[in-house]
Structure to design on (532 residues):
């Protein structure tokens, strides 16, 4: 009984360490291969479209409703002690520093991370990755580097849009639905907002982009066991990626403020 | 049973040489000290029952897998003494055709074959086009350049895989089970295609198969891999007429014999180890 429990705990720890090891070994290979020619600029742009442009509707809706619900919740709460004038500030700060980067990253991890793991995973089980190597093409350079670069660049841009959309959503709910004073709301939104709040959110977004793409690519790269293995890799890429984003969020916030 | 080593390739002049390769996956020993030497322009066929690690051996020859111990030399250069970039460079001497073709399914046939040429960045678009057409001609598949891999039959996929493997004019060609799972006619066509490639490009060839008639057709030497070792290695005639019990069993395709006894014993050991 106790032995069985310890074995289970041991297995979980081993799996965690394995994932961690794969993450850092993949990161190392990316650093080695990213600066080397040939630069497949065409592929970089293709991935940027897939990670960035194609995620616009998703991030738009996510941040819009987050901003709206945030305004709704804080307005009714703050009304209890007559602090409605601060709603704009709360919405702006929460969105830029925390919610827009984290929620966008989680959504993109589900949308793009899963696709990366599935794509690279099925290439692995059909020997296409071996074929790349046999054709003297480093798979990390050809497959992983463009995806990671695209994610690091595009997530902050998505978050810029998310910040604006979310704040507008908050404004709309507070002013149009709850009858807040538009000028007070607008002023309070920007009075407490520093440039730093904004940039910190973007730094976070870039780091999340790195994490979600490296986790997904590493998981896909080490896929084994046919179609079932690809399914497992896809699920794990999203689960591990999302958890890693939340974990990193805490430590980054601690570090950056 | 002893491994008969052939003078077909003396160690010094070997294009491709494996020395004492060992590889295990977990407790399962796949390669248990494989020695091979292939001379420039020679065609070696490795035969053996399914699941004896033929593909694993082939992947070691091009350094897609790293041996637990032992070395692989290409033109005297040791694959695993090189760093990742140099290893990649050395792989340019190789062309490898995979079991199911392993075509990139995000690209059409043309882009698949053009892939190794474009990666070098040294060819003009016209060069690439000419070479792709030439390669498709050589594998007897003209007019399919625009098709997607998913639209091709098994035999066609493999031949496109051949075309991709030869596009950059490699010096060494590796064929992984080129005719497994194909109908008898296609099996023979594949053997002919390999012979055609050989005539035109004169590469060094290593093929893996368990189809004896094709092996005789395309091989200068046949090597029987079993139990992680090369059990027998000889020119086709000598191989076919050998009295070695393992070779006889494989050639005649009998269920009983040393190969079966051996694999049964291996299976039992694995099971008892697992317990």
């Amino acid at each position: 009984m106790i032995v069985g429990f310890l074995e289970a705990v041991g297995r979980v720890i081993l799996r965690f360490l394995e994932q961690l090891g794969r993450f850092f070994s993949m990161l190392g290979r990316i650093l080695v291969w990213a600066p080397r020619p040939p630069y497949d600029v065409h592929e970089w742009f293709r991935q940027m479209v897939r990670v960035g442009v194609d995620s616009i509707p998703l991030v738009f809706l996510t941040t819009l409703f987050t901003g709206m619900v945030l305004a709704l919740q804080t307005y009714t709460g703050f009304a209890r002690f007559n602090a409605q004038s601060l709603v704009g500030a709360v919405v702006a700060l929460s969105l830029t520093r925390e919610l827009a980067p984290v929620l966008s990253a989680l959504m993109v991890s589900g949308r793009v991370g899963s696709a990366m793991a599935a794509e690279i995973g099925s290439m692995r089980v059909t020997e296409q990755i071996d074929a790349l190597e046999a054709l003297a093409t480093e798979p990390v350079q050809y497959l992983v580097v463009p995806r990671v670069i695209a994610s690091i660049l595009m997530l902050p841009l998505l978050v810029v849009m998310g910040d604006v959309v979310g704040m507008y959503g908050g404004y709309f709910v507070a002013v149009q639905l709850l009858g807040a004073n538009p000028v007070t709301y607008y002023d309070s939104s920007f009075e407490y907002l520093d440039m730093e709040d904004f940039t910190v959110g973007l730094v976070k977004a870039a780091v999340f982009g790195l994490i979600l793409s490296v986790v997904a690519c590493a998981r896909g790269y080490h896929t084994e066991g046919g179609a079932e293995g690809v399914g497992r890799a896809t699920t794990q890429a999203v689960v591990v990626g999302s958890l890693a984003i939340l974990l990193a969020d805490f430590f980054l916030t601690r570090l950056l403020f | 049973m002893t491994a008969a080593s052939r003078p077909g390739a003396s160690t010094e002049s070997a294009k491709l040489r494996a020395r004492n390769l060992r590889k295990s996956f977990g407790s399962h020993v796949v390669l248990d000290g494989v020695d091979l030497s292939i001379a420039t322009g020679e065609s070696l066929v490795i035969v053996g029952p399914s699941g004896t690690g033929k593909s694993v051996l082939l992947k070691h020859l091009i350094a897609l897998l790293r041996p637990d111990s032992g070395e692989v030399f290409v033109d005297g250069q040791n694959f695993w003494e090189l760093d990742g970039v140099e290893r990649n460079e050395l792989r340019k001497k190789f062309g490898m055709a995979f079991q199911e073709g392993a075509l990139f399914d995000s690209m059409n046939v043309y882009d698949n074959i053009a892939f190794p040429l474009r990666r070098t960045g040294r060819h003009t678009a016209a060069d690439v086009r000419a070479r792709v057409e030439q390669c498709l001609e050589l594998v007897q598949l003209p007019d399919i350049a625009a098709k997607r891999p998913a639209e091709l039959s098994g035999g066609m996929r493999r031949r496109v895989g051949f075309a991709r493997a030869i596009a950059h004019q490699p010096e060494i060609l590796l064929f992984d089970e080129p005719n497994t799972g194909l109908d008898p006619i296609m099996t023979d066509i594949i053997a002919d295609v390999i012979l055609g490639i050989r005539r035109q490009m004169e590469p060094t060839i290593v093929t893996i198969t368990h189809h004896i008639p094709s092996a005789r057709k395309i091989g200068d030497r046949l090597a029987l891999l079993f139990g992680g070792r090369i059990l027998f290695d000889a020119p086709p005639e000598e191989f076919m007429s050998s009295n070695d019990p393992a070779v006889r069993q494989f050639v005649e395709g009998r269920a009983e014999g040393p190969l079966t006894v051996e694999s049964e014993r291996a299976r039992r050991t694995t099971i008892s180890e697992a317990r």
